[in-house]
Amino acid sequence: MVGEGQPVTLIAAVAENGVIGRGLAIPWRVSSDLRRFKARTTGNTIIIGRRTHESIGKTLPGRRTIVVTRRPIDGVEAAKSLAEAIAMSTTPVFLAGGARIYAEGMALADGIEITRVHATPDGDVHFPPIDPERFRLVDIVPGEQGERDEFAFSFETYARTPTGN
Ligand SMILES: NC(=O)c1ccc[n+]([C@@H]2O[C@H](COP(=O)([O-])OP(=O)(O)OC[C@H]3O[C@@H](n4cnc5c(N)ncnc54)[C@H](OP(=O)(O)O)[C@@H]3O)[C@@H](O)[C@H]2O)c1
Q1: C-beta 99 within 6 A of ligand 1
Q2: Is there an atom of ligand 1 within 6 Å of 100 CB?
Q3: Is the CB of 49 under 6 A from ligand 1?
Q4: Which atom of ligand 1 is nearest to the CA of 14?
Q5: Whose CA is nearest to atom 21 of ligand 1?
Q6: In this predicted structure, what is the pLDDT of residue 2?
Q7: Phi/psi-derived region of residue 5, left when phi > 0, alpha when psi is between -120 and 50, beta in every other case
């Protein structure tokens, strides 16, 4: 969190139309993004909402996972609020969705890493707007679309502005 504790990064794959999900699922298959997610989060802490945990269906190996939920879940480390989950973290934190975690996490994040998926899929779960006064786009790198990437994609990095506290 800004100025204290572990750095907090919001990480998401977002379509051109802002869609991040349809029901519990992600409406595209971009393996390169999953690989990048693994590389960025392994050894660190990911914080996810209960619905995202259900959609993944298991705890991902090699990183600590904290699920935000008002109810305990068997076999999973849980926190009752996002602030509590961040306070529990002892390694760099990645807020990994879904929409509710992103919306609340926007005010707590030091940076945002978006895989922009160059598609406009139907979906009912959207990424919240990025406040340009709070974050600025500092890097954009085209991805290399491979055989297992359904769409082209780019990696966008946003940093908190000096006044964006
Ligand atoms: N494209 C991407 O990068 C990406 C990444 C992750 C997820 N997704 C998609 O996002 C969708 C799921 O997002 P979602 O917004 O529906 O659900 P979500 O944020 O994953 O989970 C919502 C649940 O988390 C708990 N929660 C969240 N914030 C809380 C808070 N501040 N305090 C207490 N509890 C809190 C509540 O659980 P309880 O009801 O148990 O209390 C709430 O019902 C799926 O479609 C998924 O595929 C996309």
Answers
A1: yes
A2: yes
A3: yes
A4: 1
A5: 49
A6: 46
A7: left
Does residue 141 lie within any of the structural domains? Answer: yes
Q: Are strands 111-117 and 19-21 parallel, antiparallel or unpaired?
A: unpaired
**pLDDT score at 165:** 62
Our count of domains for the chain comes to: 1
Q: From the first residue on, what is the mean pLDDT of each consecutive set of 10 residues in the chain (165 residues)?
A: 78 98 97 98 98 94 97 93 96 97 96 98 97 96 98 98 77
Is 3 within the bounds of a domain? no
The whole-angstrom separation of Cα 153 and Cα 30 is: 8
121 ligand 1 Cβ < 6 A? no
CATH number at residue 17: 3.40.430.10
Domain holding 134, by residue range, is 8-87+95-160
105 lines ligand 1 (CB under 6 A): no
Q: Provide the pLDDT for residue 6.
A: 93
Long-range contacts (CB closer than 8 Å, 24 or more residues apart) made by 136-144: 136/161, 143/32, 143/33, 143/115, 144/32
